[in-house]
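Quick log. Single chain, no ligands specified.
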Amino acid sequence: AMEAVQVKMISRSAKQYCSPCVGDVQRLHKNPDPTLHPFERATEYVRALNATKLEKVFAQPFLCALGGHMDGISYLARHPMWLHCFISAGVCGEMRVWNIAQRQCIGEVQAHTGAVRGVTLSADGNVLLSVGDDMTVKHWSLGMNRSDPTLWDLNATPKKTIASPHAFTNIDHSRLQELYATSSPGVVELWSDERDTPVQSHSWGSDTVHCVRWNPIESNILASTAGDRSISLYDVRGSTPIRKVILQMRSNSLAWNPMEAFNFTVANEDHNLYTFDMRNLSTAKMVYQDHVGAVIDVDYSPTGREFVTGSYDKTIRIFPFDAGHSREVYHTKRMQRVFCVRFTLDGCHVLCGSDDSNLRVWKAQASRPLKVLNRREESKIDYEEKLKLRFAHLPEVRRIARHRHLPRHVMRVRLVKHDMRQAQRRKQAHIKSHHKPGVVKTKLERNVHIVEELE
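-> predicted structure:
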């Protein structure tokens, strides 16, 4: 008689390995044991290098240019409620309402005699306010067309016009109160939506105030920049300004971080940007250097992690909030000096208005596709981003990631600025070497450009 032999068999369910339907993605199983993958780091380095190269290959940031203005675009405003709605104002006094999704103008009006200096919207987005060189504040009714949601109704005549004895330079509406602020030569005025006279006036010096911005989180705080190179802070609960800092050169624009209530960034004439903490204005938190011309405008992404800038050097740049150099620079042959820039509410696109009367739309992530991505495509992009971040310090990956094609005039001025900076450093080193140790103190870059803080 034959003895019984015990045989061990592997039993596997077909449901765990086979696709339930024809055409489904095949399941892949991988053992994460590092001893089974001795070349994992080398493989991932090659993947990171290829991902960095492909990012440059597929980078197509420019989407469209929207024309129609008769002169340069002086100001841009985004609708606080609707993602696709933007308002542009020109030097010729014309305002246009744009549907960015459909890339068309859906409303236009001759708003002012002379240049429009500022445009803002109320908290609910139903009232549009504008100021110009004709010394008036105008309230416009802006509403969605009931028959076609893609269109907006902008009345040809303003619902209210307020005359003033002086010209206005900027306007901004509070996001949490029924108040708006205007800037004029030597004064910042607070207005109520229901009154025709200012409810408060703040002045500190006699120079023209060029920019005024409400804090989107601390609704009682606003900041302004003036022609005397100062940045002033105001509290509407008090009757006087609370703090002021003077820089070496004038600041053209200001933007609050929407996620950090105390931090704001200013665009300066010295080609740099500075981030300050309003609790301590004696030093800048960060200095951003890359532009080769005066920085005209700055605007934060809704995430607060990065901001976009427009400059007199005919380029726009996107800076991470915690890095001193830009991650992207956009330019075209036809784009002239950039006067205004804005992020969209989703942070995926950037708009800029320039002196050539065109409104241009760009992608915030140059190589990211515009289509709706499925789960596997999102996972692939996230995996490549992690790889590029892991190997970003290696020379080859860093060289490819930092490479940018720049216009000839930008490169020429950039080289001149580099030589000037090196000469200044050599001069300081020579001065320090010919004095006793400790006599000559080296000032940090974030403190060099600050002249004085006043309270």
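The radius of gyration is 27 Å.
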